[in-house]
Amino acid sequence: TPAGTPSSQLHAVSRMLNLNEDVITSSTTQASTGIGGNDLPPAGTPQNQWKILVYDAPCRSVISPLLSVSQLRRRGVTLHLLIQSDREPIPDVPAVYFVEPTRANLTQIASDVAKGLYASYHLNFVTRLDRSLMEEFARLVVQSGSISRIASLHDQYLDYVCLEKRLFTLNKRDSYVLYNGSGVTESVIEDAMNDIAYGLFSVVATMGCVPVIRCPKGGAPEMVARKLNKMISDHPTLLRGRGASGSAMQSHHRPLLVIMDRNSDLITPIQHTSTYQALIDDVLNHNANRIEFVVEVEENGRKKNVTKRFDLEADDDPFYSSHKFNPFPEAIESNGAELTEVTNRQSEIQAKTGASGNDGVDPMESAANELATAVDSLPALLDRKKKLEVHTSILQAVMNEVAARDVPQFYELESSLATGNYGKDLTKAKRDVLELVTDPAKGNVQDKVRLVIVYCLATTAPTADIDEVAGSMKNALETKGSAVTTGAQHGTLSIDDKKKLEHGMRAIDYLKKLRSMQMIPNMSDAMQDASGMTSGGGAGDPDMLSAFMARATNQATGLLAKATERVGTMLGKVHKHRATRVVENLCEMKPNSEDEEYLYLDPKVKGDVDVSVLRNMTRAPVRDVIAFMIGGGCYAEYQNLQMISDERRVISYGSTELIDPCVFLNQLGKLA
After folding, report:
1. How far apart are CA 543 and CA 492, in angstroms?
2. DSSP codes, 458-500
3. Could you tell me if 314 and 167 are in contact, meaning their C-beta atoms sit under 8 angstroms apart?
4. Is 68:6 a contact under the CB 8 Å cutoff?
5. Where does 556-621 have alpha helices with state H?
6. Which helix or strand (DSSP H or E) is residue 80 part of?
7. Alpha-carbon distance 402 to 408, whole Å?
8. How far is CA 427 from CA 423, 432, 434, 452, 471, in A?
9. Residue 359 CB neighbour total at 10 angstroms
């Protein structure tokens, strides 16, 4: 099982909700993965009794992507309540608590136990409960004479949020600011690194495999790697090849955990992108697989705005799982083609149910068989159609933003800068950037700031040129405004946009300072061509591209009618970002690469492993990789890593938090 998969985390959560007893299901497969729900014993029976779930906000974030309200109910949860909310006594029902091991939570639990709110208390902490806090809590319940009501207490090691099969986050807010702020004390950094190490320990413990850890020397990655290495070494159950809960190891192949620092590539989280899932995250309101956007509808001749909300199922929705990593125009084309196919199939079935044929068989029997088959297949078909229509709505919302802001132009120019297409022609690079950032009809404030940042990081342009470009952008925005703005008259900036510009200028100042002090690596080769790999075949040929866009327009019922030429550039070449190149070098054990430079820590071996010795030995091929980014990760990086994932190798991606470009821009602005 790849690292961080929902199945291993869901199995642990299901076990916890079953009062820390193994979940017995009618199917062995479901029992082993914990994904089931339909084949659980009926809720309210002795094997699956009714209970109340009490959690805090961080633990709600862990459960939300895994279990819906109906799935919680199938696991016997009648009520799920926040620990800080006012809760009525329900003295005849057991309560499962799932919270962070903080003093505030423990004090609240002690109070609940003393009041006798519930019949019994099954306490589960998302990560390790400190001994001092446990002793403090024990004193409180002993004093109130209520210790007998506590049925069990467990450290669950589930301190991470699993968003899809190969994607997890530790949900540490403002993580880049915390590790890079100038006034941060050593003890704060130490605590932060401990938190990350515990989060990664949760991932390792849930999957039940001991990884080999690789990281660059020095800084946050080494601190976290050494702490994690010690935590695993000190955990005898894990070292014996069992998970923290005692479940058997999932795989004979040991995973490779690569810990990296966001400072090694600041372009990827800022740059515009071209693929479906990454664009959703960039241009729409998207958080923890929930998406929200406003559409304009006409009602009784009047136009009004309506907010639409959808929960995306990255692994279970066939269209989304197939196309989330695809270039945006391809997703549009596929959506149109699949909708047409499903609608035609629906018409065929409905025609069959109303007709009978006579091909030498009993017409009554033939009609009955066809009707039965049609009736059986129709619900699944209608469900697929409904999901496709949701994606049509989302694609339209993304398209509206992409077209209004001319996102492809920013994407194309940033890609040219990041892949070194300009070479040493800094004059042309500067001229092209200046032209786009001073055009009031192109992009919003943050689009322009992001382009200036890529120019700053991806070229060796003198600081004076960066100042000139940033100053010209600021001047153009303040005098001509932006065509893509809300709440402001044409030609002026709204209050919100003025704040974004101010923040953006601070972010540029911060990066200029890092650049001048040489505190970040040269990112002029931040992305490299993946030789022979293109996405959306024939993307390099403008004629083929025009034909493709024409097809996309027809098949997506005019979805692209307004802006076919604007998204054409989104079918460009695929480039390997820095994290992808590092992981590939480590997996392929390439000479003169990170494989020779990075630390090699093995929790099963005392001390550091000498890589130069290993290089003369035959090493087992890497089957599972966990790429982890300290300081924030993004969908563009996650998607890019999947380029080197195949039937031989599975790549999971995790980060201290998952951030969209505007959130990361705000974090950079806080550091100036």
Report:
1. 39
2. HS---HHHHHHHHHHHHHHHHHH--SS-SSS-TTS--HHHHHH
3. yes
4. no
5. 564-567, 578-588, 594-597, 611-614
6. strand 77-82
7. 7
8. 11, 9, 11, 15, 17
9. 6
Residues contacting 167, CB < 8 A, separation 6+: 4, 314, 638, 652, 653, 654, 658
Scan for tokens 């519930």, then name that residue.
118
Say how many residues make up the chain: 672
3-state secondary structure (DSSP) of residue 439? coil
In whole angstroms, give the CA distance from residue 610 to residue 73.
52
H or E stretch covering 455: helix 445-458
Task: Tell me the HSE value of 275 on the side-chain side, using a 13 A CA sphere.
Answer: 24
Q: Does residue 392 register a pLDDT over 70?
A: yes
Question: Cα(553)–Cα(152) distance, rounded to whole angstroms?
Answer: 60
Which tokens sit at 147?
């210790």
Positive or negative: CA dihedral 163, 586, 631, 225:
positive
**Single-letter code of the amino acid located at 617:** M
Q: Which residues pair with 311 in a beta bridge?
A: 290
Check residue 641 and give its pLDDT: 96
The predicted model gives 442-446 an average pLDDT of 95
Give the integer Cα–Cα distance in Å for 246 and 229. 19
Gap between the Cα atoms of 430 and 415, Å rounded: 14
SS3 assignment for 327-373: EHHHHHHHHHHHHHHHHHHHHHHHHHHCCCCCCCCCHHHHHHHHHHH
Tokens, residue 165: 């099969």
* Token pair 């970002």 in the structure block, residue: 577
Q: Which of 384, 395, 280 is CA-nearest to residue 340?
A: 384
Longest dimension (CA), the chain: 87
**Which tens digits make up the pLDDT trace of 18-57?**
999 887 765 544 433 344 456 788 988 888 899 999 999 9
Residues 538-560: tens digit of each pLDDT: 333 333 333 444 444 444 444 44
Distances from the Cα of 409 to the Cα of 416, 432, 439, 464, 648, angstroms:
11, 11, 12, 25, 36
Give the rounded distance of the alpha carbon of 650 from its chain centre. 16
| Local structure of 7: helix, strand or coil | helix
Gap between the Cα atoms of 371 and 377, Å rounded? 10
Cβ 624 vs Cβ 2: under 8 Å:
yes
Residue with tokens 């080999």: 212
Strands (E), 106-247: 121-125, 150-155, 161-164, 167-169, 212-215
Characterize 9-43 residue by residue with b for buried, 16 or more Cβ atoms within 10 angstroms of its Cβ, and e for exposed: bbbbbbbbbbbbeebebeeeebbbbbbbbeebbeb
The pair of three-digit structure tokens given for residue 41, joined into one six-digit string = 């014993």
Question: 204: which DSSP letter?
Answer: H
pLDDT of residue 132: 94
In 3-state terms, what secondary structure has residue 509? helix
Nearest Cα neighbor of 264 from 630, 662, 658, 627 is 630
Q: Tokens for 98?
A: 């799932």
Q: Which residues contact 170 (CB under 8 A, 6 or more apart)?
A: 159, 160, 161, 195, 196, 199, 200, 654, 655, 656, 657
In the block, which residue shows the tokens 């090849």? 241
Distances (CA, A) of 252 to 212, 577, 650: 13, 30, 14
Mean pLDDT of all residues belonging to the chain: 85
Give the containing element (helix H, strand E) for 189. helix 186-207
Rounded CA separation 32/281 (Å): 33
Considering just the CA atoms, what is the radius of gyration of the chain in Å?
27
**Could you give the CA distance from residue 309 to residue 434 in angstroms, rounded to a whole number?**
38
Residue carrying structure tokens 């002090």: 517
Q: Can you read off the two tokens belonging to residue 99?
A: 């919270």
> Which residues have CB under 8 Å from 487's CB, separation 6+?
494, 495, 496
